[in-house]
């Protein structure tokens, strides 16, 4: 087996709140190679953001805790590192962009200060040189008049510009891995297109691997090589982007694909929606979390949780129905019964 | 075919300029945010009119102006032939019975300390419709209409998910049997799978109760699915309006074209030609001279910086405000 840049094994994160424990992430495995882009897709509460924060070891503790698993980055287990060493990894080796650029920038420091701070935290370099580098970074992410912009405060920037600044900060030390947590959700489509383009360009120039967390499949098609679909803290399906589009196997993934509204949707009368809403993870639960919303659920789904198994090469699914034939058969059965 | 019908709502030359207060006390404001700057459209019974545009283009302000939640600086909103701005406060209230609103954020628009029953019955109480018992019955009916159950009535908003809360908001908007429902980004705070449920519900209700919708969204896919006609706004103005086939199939304005090309791909293998707009939406305080879009426009000509384009007719139902169209059609 070749060495992956990032190899996450059985990651489990729990949150404790008055009396109950919630498994926000439950045994997630991820593999990512150099220059690759991995999409993590799921609805709110599916654990995708918690997974990302756990990779950076930024889970607030208490109440949260990584209770199990390993995160191997370049062969080193990040969970074994001291806080001091971990601080060196963040920013240098891997860095993160958050969803909301206004809350992630400090409003009382100039943008320049914030970029310089990151550079100087990781490199022995004079303030002046760091400032020159900051100008370069801003130029790289396409901010006009970077020298002038350096002295401005975040509130003087628009949403798209702030996200560019965040990207500049994240890439300041040439990380090998960039984790982007819904970087374009708060932005308009036209600006989203600009930012996605920028990320693609920078990835090619710097050979960065990207983990893209999103609920928008459109963004996945745009950017990602492979996808992890998460539901209720577990990976339910994991494969290449192309395979997922052509040949999604998990009923939840179909639901997502079908309820996505695209340009072609106009012809149909009704949208195929997934009934119900995601489960409450504080409740003890046996069986598949999706069973209560799943059109194909059978007896076994309600009491035995399915394992994630490789049904085809590089295509992992956690469902009791594991082949297309099985699923089609079951679908027809339900259809005939309805008749 | 829609042109033969009498519009239920007529908006003409609607303007809203918000003053920027000077830091000197008692000094009159000299600068204005031109949030809405001359918007006109007709709304026909039973249709869904979509309003799309980027943040800050004035779409939510239009919604609030229609409902008379804020008073327009200039222009008229006529509902069934009556200018709403000319009405007294009490009369506006009764007019609002017919124009209800569903807001974007289902977490902020429901009072966390009230029960669902109270929240849905509140519009009935305000307008003095029915007695306690009949209101309770109506609440149950409404809950069932939007796909919730009678036992939800005694609960509080925090016990519901985002999608359910938006259903409650919709039930509340329907309580007074409105003719028009203004939906301001009703699904943008919801997850995809839940989004589809709420959109289906809105479509069902429209069919069952003959509702007319104004549907405000920044999500072009949702608008395409929901709407019969679409108005594209940029910096307080409507730059293009037409049926959804016309807007999506034959967009005339360069801004509409860019907006459509910015939608993420439908599948991973679709090699899509992108028109990337440079820069950001300019400030509505000092909008650029001439056409507000000319600084970001691929086709900007000399006259675009000087003369403000008017809405030109493409077809009976399709209008665009762009010099390029005028030049090309000559």
UniProtKB/TrEMBL annotation, chain A:
<dbReference type="Pfam" id="PF00005">
    <property type="entry name" value="ABC_tran"/>
</dbReference>
<dbReference type="InterPro" id="IPR027417">
    <property type="entry name" value="P-loop_NTPase"/>
</dbReference>
<keyword id="KW-0813">Transport</keyword>
<dbReference type="InterPro" id="IPR003593">
    <property type="entry name" value="AAA+_ATPase"/>
</dbReference>
<keyword id="KW-0472">Membrane</keyword>
<keyword id="KW-0067">ATP-binding</keyword>
<dbReference type="GO" id="GO:0005524">
    <property type="term" value="F:ATP binding"/>
</dbReference>
<dbReference type="Pfam" id="PF08352">
    <property type="entry name" value="oligo_HPY"/>
</dbReference>
<dbReference type="InterPro" id="IPR013563">
    <property type="entry name" value="Oligopep_ABC_C"/>
</dbReference>
<dbReference type="InterPro" id="IPR017871">
    <property type="entry name" value="ABC_transporter-like_CS"/>
</dbReference>
<keyword id="KW-0547">Nucleotide-binding</keyword>
<protein>
    <submittedName>
        <fullName>Oligopeptide transport ATP-binding protein OppD</fullName>
    </submittedName>
</protein>
<dbReference type="InterPro" id="IPR003439">
    <property type="entry name" value="ABC_transporter-like_ATP-bd"/>
</dbReference>
<dbReference type="InterPro" id="IPR050388">
    <property type="entry name" value="ABC_Ni/Peptide_Import"/>
</dbReference>
<keyword id="KW-1003">Cell membrane</keyword>
<feature type="domain" description="ABC transporter">
    <location>
        <begin position="6"/>
        <end position="257"/>
    </location>
</feature>
<comment type="similarity">
    <text>Belongs to the ABC transporter superfamily.</text>
</comment>
UniProtKB/TrEMBL annotation, chain B:
<dbReference type="InterPro" id="IPR027417">
    <property type="entry name" value="P-loop_NTPase"/>
</dbReference>
<dbReference type="Pfam" id="PF08352">
    <property type="entry name" value="oligo_HPY"/>
</dbReference>
<keyword id="KW-0067">ATP-binding</keyword>
<dbReference type="GO" id="GO:0005524">
    <property type="term" value="F:ATP binding"/>
</dbReference>
<protein>
    <submittedName>
        <fullName>ABC transporter ATP-binding protein</fullName>
    </submittedName>
</protein>
<dbReference type="InterPro" id="IPR003439">
    <property type="entry name" value="ABC_transporter-like_ATP-bd"/>
</dbReference>
<keyword id="KW-0547">Nucleotide-binding</keyword>
<keyword id="KW-0813">Transport</keyword>
<dbReference type="InterPro" id="IPR003593">
    <property type="entry name" value="AAA+_ATPase"/>
</dbReference>
<comment type="similarity">
    <text>Belongs to the ABC transporter superfamily.</text>
</comment>
<dbReference type="InterPro" id="IPR013563">
    <property type="entry name" value="Oligopep_ABC_C"/>
</dbReference>
<feature type="domain" description="ABC transporter">
    <location>
        <begin position="9"/>
        <end position="260"/>
    </location>
</feature>
<dbReference type="InterPro" id="IPR017871">
    <property type="entry name" value="ABC_transporter-like_CS"/>
</dbReference>
<dbReference type="Pfam" id="PF00005">
    <property type="entry name" value="ABC_tran"/>
</dbReference>
<dbReference type="InterPro" id="IPR050319">
    <property type="entry name" value="ABC_transp_ATP-bind"/>
</dbReference>
């Amino acid at each position: 087996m070749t060495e992956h840049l990032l190899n996450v094994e059985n990651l489990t994160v729990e949150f404790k709140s008055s009396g109950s424990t919630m498994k926000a992430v439950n045994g997630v495995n991820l593999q990512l190679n150099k220059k690759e882009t991995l999409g993590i897709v799921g609805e709110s509460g599916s654990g995708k953001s918690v997974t990302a924060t756990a990779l950076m070891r930024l889970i607030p503790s208490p109440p949260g805790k990584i209770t199990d698993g390993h995160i191997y980055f370049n062969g080193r287990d990040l969970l074994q590192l001291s806080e001091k060493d971990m601080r060196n990894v963040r920013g240098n080796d891997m860095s993160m962009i958050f969803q909301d650029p206004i809350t992630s920038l400090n409003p009382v420091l100039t943008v320049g200060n914030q970029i310089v701070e990151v550079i100087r935290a990781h490199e022995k370099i004079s303030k002046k040189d760091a400032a020159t580098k900051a100008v370069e970074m801003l130029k790289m992410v396409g901010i006009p008049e970077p020298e002038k912009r350096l002295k401005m405060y975040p509130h003087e920037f628009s949403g798209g510009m702030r996200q560019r600044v965040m990207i500049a900060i994240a890439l300041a030390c040439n990380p090998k891995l960039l984790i982007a947590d819904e970087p374009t959700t708060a932005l308009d489509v036209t600006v989203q297109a600009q930012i996605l383009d920028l990320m693609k360009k920078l990835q090619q120039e710097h050979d960065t691997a990207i983990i893209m967390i999103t609920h928008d499949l459109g963004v996945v098609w745009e950017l990602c090589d492979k996808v992890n679909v998460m539901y209720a803290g577990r990976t339910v399906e994991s494969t290449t982007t192309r395979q997922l589009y052509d040949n999604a196997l998990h009923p939840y993934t179909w639901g997502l694909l079908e309820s996505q509204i695209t340009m072609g949707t106009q012809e149909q009368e009704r949208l195929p929606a997934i009934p119900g809403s995601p489960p409450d993870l504080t409740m003890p639960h046996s069986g598949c979390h999706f069973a209560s919303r799943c059109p194909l659920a059978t007896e076994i789904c309600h009491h035995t949780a399915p394992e994630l198994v490789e049904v085809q090469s590089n295509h992992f699914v956690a469902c009791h129905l594991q082949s297309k034939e099985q699923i089609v058969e079951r679908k027809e059965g339900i259809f005939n019964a309805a008749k | 075919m829609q042109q033969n019908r009498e519009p239920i709502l007529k908006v003409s030359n609607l303007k809203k300029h918000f003053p920027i207060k000077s830091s000197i006390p008692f000094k009159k404001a000299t600068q204005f945010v031109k949030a809405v700057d001359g918007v006109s459209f007709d709304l026909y019974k039973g249709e869904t009119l979509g309003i799309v545009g980027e943040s800050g283009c004035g779409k939510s302000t239009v919604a609030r102006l229609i409902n008379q939640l804020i008073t327009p600086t200039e222009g008229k909103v006529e509902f069934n032939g009556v200018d709403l701005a000319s009405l007294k406060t009490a009369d506006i209230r009764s007019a609002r019975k017919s124009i209800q609103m569903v807001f974007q954020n289902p977490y902020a628009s429901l009072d966390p300390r009230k029960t669902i029953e109270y929240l849905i019955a509140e519009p009935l109480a305000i307008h003095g419709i029915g007695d306690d018992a009949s209101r309770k019955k109506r609440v149950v009916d409404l809950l069932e209409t939007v796909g919730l159950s009678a036992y939800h009535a005694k609960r509080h908003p925090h016990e519901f998910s985002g999608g359910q809360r938006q259903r409650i908001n919709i039930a509340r908007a329907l309580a007074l049997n409105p003719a028009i429902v203004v939906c301001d980004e009703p699904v943008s705070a919801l997850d995809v799978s839940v989004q589809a449920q709420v959109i289906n519900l809105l479509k069902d209700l429209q069919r069952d109760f003959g509702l007319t919708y104004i549907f405000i969204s920044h999500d072009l896919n949702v608008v395409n699915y929901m709407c019969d006609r679409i108005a594209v706004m940029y910096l307080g103005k409507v730059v293009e309006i037409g049926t959804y086939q016309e807007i999506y199939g034959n967009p005339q304005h360069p801004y509409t074209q860019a907006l459509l090309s910015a939608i993420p791909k439908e599948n991973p293998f679709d090699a899509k030609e992108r028109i990337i707009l440079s820069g950001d939406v300019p400030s509505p305080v000092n909008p650029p001279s001439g056409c507000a879009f000319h600084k970001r426009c691929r086709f900007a000509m000399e006259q675009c910086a000087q003369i403000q384009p008017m809405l030109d007719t493409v077809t009976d139902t399709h209008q665009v405000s762009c010099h390029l169209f005028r030049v090309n059609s000559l």
